[in-house]
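Project channel, design review

CF: Before we commit to the Lactuca sativa constructs, I'd like one complete example in the thread so the newer folks can see what an input/output pair looks like. Taking Nuclease HARBI1.
RD: sounds good, go ahead.
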Amino acid sequence: MEVNDDNSSSEDELINNNLLPVLSRTAQLLLQNNASSSNIQRRNTIHRDRLEAERLLIRHYFADDSTYGHAQFRRRFRMSKGLFMRLVGDLETNYPYFQTTWDATNQRSFSALQ
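CF: and here is what came back for Nuclease HARBI1:
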């Protein structure tokens, strides 16, 4: 039994002398890294006026007196406006990805038309 006690005390001594300093140094380095990470430069954000872009898109293509008529719409999108609107409506109804939500910056996300 004394042999086991000697082994356990030598293991404790080994842990205290070797492992604890390593763990302590690792903890210090982690704390330093976390403190220095707050100094990271953030990227410049590009302001994209989503609401204005949607308003222009609707005015140009989807309003009753749109800037571009049915012929220009068909040439650009290679389908009729009615078919396009049916597709957009079905996507919004069946897939949450196409439903209007709020993003991480608390701004309205892009609409299904966009």
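RD: helpful, thanks. Residues 2-37 form the longest helix (36 residues).
CF: The chain is about 60% helix and 0% strand.
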